[in-house]
Amino acid sequence: MPAEPQKFRAVLDADSAIGKFAEEWEKHYYDKYQLKVDFSAVRVPIQRQGFGWLMFIAQGLTCNQVYAKCESLFPCWRWVQDLDAAVQGRNDREPTDHYAIWLRDREEPDEELKNLSAIQLAAYGVPGNTLLEGLVLEPWYFRRTSHLNNVNWNLCSGSRSSDGGVPSVGWKVGRFGVDYADSYDAGGGLRSRSVVS
Q: How many Cβ atoms are within 10 Å of 19's Cβ, its own excluded?
């Protein structure tokens, strides 16, 4: 019987590019959140073509914690005061331990996923980023270059609010915003970020 294809590898066993991403994220968490983390034992999914950003999520990190960091860096607004309570227990991935995902390396959410609602994405089996992942990506990218989601909103299709709504993040009128859409909402300017997890 042929062996199953490998789906994960530890950072320690990976190539130098993965190690550099791990070091960059460790530094990011220390500089921005005063968290001392070690991602060397994290299982990293096998990279797929076109997915050039490796994101590490620190164990125990919260949406409110990341939103507060964003507020300290640039103007922000949110649709609900307690983002953690809004999506608690309704995320495709929870930070119960450190984990890593791959995303496409681009400023705007995936062009390939425009005009697809969260319901459609789930039906097609397309895994999307969670609210926490969408929030974490913003200050990381801001530190490197600029802002994400300037033209389109990132539909965080890997999360749901208590009423079934889907959070989204993006820039509007000079502020970074956290909003939500109905699970059936679709449009050219509302796009998820596909993940490899």
A: 15
Instruction: Quick: pLDDT tens for 15-36.
Output: 788 999 999 999 999 999 999 9
Q: What residue type is assigned to position 144 of the chain? A: R
Listed residue (186, 178, 177, 183) closest to 158, CA to CA: 183
CB of 138 closer than 8 Å to CB of 70: yes
CA distance 114 to 150: 15
| Nearest C-alpha neighbor of 84 from the set 57, 61, 101 | 61
Alpha-carbon torsion 83, 89, 95, 100, what sign?
negative
| Distance, first Cα to last Cα, the chain | 26
Residue with tokens 């050039």: 52
Residue type, 174: G
Q: Which two tokens stand for residue 19?
A: 């190690």
pLDDT at 93: 98
Query: What predicted TM-score, i.e. pTM, was given to this entire model?
Result: 0.93
